[in-house]
Amino acid sequence: MNTIMKREIVIDTETTGMNSKGCFYKGHRIIEISCIEIFNRNITGKIFHTYLKPDRRIDDSAYKIHGISEKFLYNKPKFKDAIKTFFSFIKNSNLIIHNAMFDIAFINYELKIANYHIKNIEKNYKIIDSLSIARNLFPGKKNNLNVLCDRYKIENKNRKLHSALLDSQLLAKVYLKMTSYQKNICFDNNHKIKLKLKHDIKHKFIVILANKKEINSNKDYLRFMKKVY
């Protein structure tokens, strides 16, 4: 029997700043990007990671979050210099991002600045938003990375500051935990069927539909991006 090999890449970024609502706006840049490979539900150890020179100052509020200074980035490559390596690493994969709209907006902005032939990464890759998965599993609760690590008993004591490399490694573990679990389904005839939702090579990825709030947020994002571009 033929099996379909599934490759997934967990992506996280750090940036020079954001606006008051925690979203991308024109002018801020990516200063760190990390990609972790998951192949057939296994973290392989293959990593793409680089710091990037943004050619602009880093907001004080952002520096307090990640601790990455302009001096540290002075001799680092620019995003345009890392594009080919980045796309070579993520090819033939689905992309897993926590709060995906934030990172996608920054990546698309960098692609535009570099005049790269791919303009919208979400049109070329399937994006899996791990925050949406968490919100469906734990509605009404906090679902940031620290909380999810605590919830799934994943060690994160070294996460004193945000780091794209560390955060993508933690998110890869969280994502595998969130998408491997057991659930009882009860039917009207009181017959219980135990559905095992382990996403190995024998199972298809479960598509979690966006709720009304997420759909409205996506509409707001699309309207915002039209104004930016």
Describe the model.
The protein is an alpha/beta fold. The protein has one domain (7-228): 2-Layer Sandwich (Nucleotidyltransferase, domain 5), CATH 3.30.420. The chain is 35% helix and 22% strand. It is built from seven helices and seven strands; from the N terminus they run E-E-E-H-H-E-H-E-H-H-H-E-E-H. The strands form two sheets. It has a five-stranded mixed beta sheet with strand order 3-2-1-4-5, with helices on both faces. A two-stranded antiparallel sheet has the order 6-7. The longest helix is centred in the C-terminal third of the chain and has 17 residues, at 212-228. This is DNA polymerase III subunit epsilon. GO terms for molecular function: 3'-5' exonuclease activity; DNA binding; DNA-directed DNA polymerase activity; metal ion binding. Substrate binds at residues 12, 14, 66, 167.
Features:
7 strands, single chain, 5-stranded mixed β-sheet, globular, alpha/beta, 7 helices, Nucleotidyltransferase, domain 5, 229 residues
Summarize the structure.
This protein has 229 residues and is α/β, with parallel strands linked by helices. It has seven helices and seven strands, in the order βββααβαβαααββα.
Q: Topology of this structure?
A:
Blueprint: E1 7-15, E2 30-39, E3 42-51, H1 60-66, H2 79-90, E4 94-97, H3 100-113, E5 127-129, H4 130-137, H5 145-151, H6 164-178, E6 180-186, E7 192-198, H7 212-228
Parallel strand pairs: 1-4, 4-5
Antiparallel strand pairs: 1-2, 2-3, 6-7
